[in-house]
Amino acid sequence: MIFRILTLPVRYTFSKVKKAVGKLGEIKIEPLYAFGNKRHIYVKGRVIEAYKQSKPSARKNYFQNILGALRRYAGSSVPDAKVEISYLGVKKVVESDEEGIIDCVFDSVHYKENEKHKVGFKLIPEEGLTPEKNWTFIPVRQYEEQHHRGIISDIDDTILISNATVLGKKLWLSISKNAYTRRPFPGVSEFYHLLTEGGKNPVFYVSSSDWNLYDLIRDFLNYRKIPDGPLLLKDFHVNLKNIWKSGGGDHQHKLEKIELLFDLYPGMKFILIGDSGQHDPELYAQVIKDYPGRVLSVYIRQVKKEMNEARKILLKQINNSPDSPEMVFVSSTEEAIRHAKSNSLIHS
């Protein structure tokens, strides 16, 4: 993340030069999500060079995985590209930012439960930009505003073993493993299937990982049979003017995305899942305060043995308040499953 931020001016300039001299090669659009309620659909994608990334495999060695990680972070984003996005006959033209990100919002006036729609992406050709194919599509996920339950989950050290609090270990895992060799915490697939009632309840993944890891996370969820859902990863929110002022490590974006979900689905109550390694307990405590009665329970995976005094006070305040849901620190997924069963949040 820090490396990408620091090298953004160089990568941006290099991409512009390659475009000017016609050396960008074929361009593809990677759809990231299309989801919403019956009134609005939020759409996001990336414009990137159509580099060939081999499929993950459990048989790949460290060297092959490191090469794959280098390709992923090799500056393939394409800035300032115009893309036409189409939904139910409505078309919008947007321009990619410095990291190749495109997004927009559509009004959804044709919502019917169980009716399936798609969003289409089309690169508008110009000198130096050649599309890999004419259109790329992604299915739209629409959920009722009054649907009774949803799940919001972190990723690193919540479902995916990441060692996020130990920089060296986290870096090594990130570059030496692939989607098939990264390990989930035991029992996560079962827990999430029980919470979603076999797909009836939506799950949203809100993480501080950046969009370059989108394919790895998506393939990891599919391979480990963990229920999929919209991935709300971290945008840089920086440009060439303010890059040197950016802190890069704050988790405010997670709160913003959680607030978006609570506002999109005002009748939905949520189960929040995270870990103790960074700021999830404090973040979820803020959500409980801002949205009284909307949180059913909070599960925090205990990745550190000791809890600091400030967090002990926070936990005591939440769990002693009659109007607050319980914040449960667990050392294993099995503990969370037992608690959820005893509180009728899941049914076996």
Automatic annotation (TrEMBL):
<protein>
    <submittedName>
        <fullName>App1 family protein</fullName>
    </submittedName>
</protein>
<dbReference type="InterPro" id="IPR052935">
    <property type="entry name" value="Mg2+_PAP"/>
</dbReference>
<dbReference type="Pfam" id="PF09949">
    <property type="entry name" value="APP1_cat"/>
</dbReference>
<feature type="domain" description="Phosphatidate phosphatase APP1 catalytic">
    <location>
        <begin position="150"/>
        <end position="302"/>
    </location>
</feature>
<dbReference type="InterPro" id="IPR019236">
    <property type="entry name" value="APP1_cat"/>
</dbReference>
